[in-house]
Amino acid sequence: NSRQNKLAIEAYARQLPKQVGVGIDRIDTEPMDAQDSGTTKQPTSTPRGAPRAPKPTPPPESKVIVYDQGFAGDLQKLGNQKMISLYYSVCAVGLKHHTPLVTVGVWSLVESLMTLVGKGDTTFKAFFSSKAQNSEDFSNDEKKHISEAFHRITANGNTTKHGSIGANFNSDDLVNDMVLVTPALRWLVLKSLNKN
Which of residues 107 and 18 earns the better pLDDT score? Predict the structure, then answer.
């Protein structure tokens, strides 16, 4: 058992650099096969002879909400420090350990922005649908997907903020929903700016 021999192993390891031909310098790795051009060969079959399928690489995890420079510029034109600050915060706070916090921040940003541009007492989904109904700026599919994303932002924000146990922990969905609604938010802000 190596735990029982720990002291003997450590003493032996300390003596190795003193021996001829054994040093502490590291050298770069090199291929074992001289004909190998530096690429690692993948085994072409399993021990039983069946070919191995290549393993898929998982997509990278979402680390933060994607920051849209154009949207940030539109918020600057509004001149509303709350919107500018909320958008900065939801994009700056890391999602790995703070998804519930960012969920409430996104919900607050969307709610505040919608109120600023005239939402009133309707839902995000209903407000966007009524504004975009006759617009050709979005296809029918885009309108549908944006409305669904607004619904999820509302539901997840309400559950996370008001629920005693329930919260949104799915950062990938939150990032995707923000990617979907950001063009709609920009569109609403620009419509508001053009009215003034």
Answer: 107
